Amino acid sequence: MRKVYLCLCAIFLFLMKINAQEIKAIKGETAYPFLLKDVDHETTESEKQPVFVFLHGRSLSGTNLDRVKRYGVLYAINKGQEVPGIIVAPQSRGGWDPDKVIEIVDYVIAHYDADPDRVYVCGMSMGGYGTMDVAGKYPERIAAAVAICGGGSSQYASNLTQVPIWLHHGTRDRAVPISESRKIMNAIKKADPDAEVRLNVIKGGTHGSVERLFHDDAIYDWMLKFKKKQKS
């Protein structure tokens, strides 16, 4: 009987751990609905956690929030990738509004053990453009940014010099040519030759194949090297 009791307790604790790390759908609290994966607080001792915001591409736009799991950070986690922090994945109906993305960041900081000095944004395709717009309009809020097979607006070039940026683009991308990433990188470098911005040219990479970058530690480890000191 004691063995059965201990077995049931072990199963219960295991299910509780899974539930603590489940992906939550948050709707009606901010302009964009979003999925959120919190950390396991039993292992973090309630320390302030970094926040990774993932912005999807046009193909995942719409009103079915589960679509956001089809590629990117949450998809990579589902396949076994470890990402140390709070994961936020909003859904737009087409295009990204930086103000609405920051509204989600503010919500997460207010309701979770999120570190405002370690807010990172990353995105792919349309989400790559959105990443650059968020970092460009709110450089004081973003610690680092990764934009994959996207581009950016030169109007934000000066602001983007304040944010460490890692661009990734495949040479065989027919949906968004690599010239888009080169153009925004050159605009940033023109504004400040010493700006922390670089482009990873993926030889033979297509628009879809570069999604594999979300399944590797490199982009997450790189972002975590940076911390933004918020003004009090």
Please tell me about this protein's structure.
α6 links the parallel β6 and β7. The radius of gyration is 19 Å and the shape is globular. The protein contains 8 helices and 8 strands. The chain is α/β, with parallel strands linked by helices and 232 residues long. It has a single domain, classed as Rossmann fold (3-Layer(aba) Sandwich). Strands 1-2-4-3-5-6-7-8 form an 8-stranded mixed sheet, with helices on both faces.
Terminal Cα separation, in Å? 58 Å
Arrangement of strands in the largest sheet: 1-2-4-3-5-6-7-8
Low-pLDDT sequence parts: 4-20
Q: What is the number of helical segments per DSSP (H or I, 4+ residues)?
A: 8
Largest sheet geometry: 8 strands, mixed
**What is the general shape?**
globular
On the 0 to 100 scale, the average pLDDT is: 91
CATH superfamily: Alpha/Beta hydrolase fold, catalytic domain
Kindly report the CATH topology.
Answer: Rossmann fold
Quickly give the CATH architecture.
3-Layer(aba) Sandwich
Determine the structural class based on helices, strands and strand pairing: alpha/beta
The CATH class, by name, is Alpha Beta
- How many distinct beta strands? 8
> Strand content of the residues, in percent?
15-25%
Report the C-alpha radius of gyration, rounded.
19 Å
Bin the helical content: 25-40%
Q: What string gives the helices and strands in order? A: HEEHEHEHEHEHEHEH
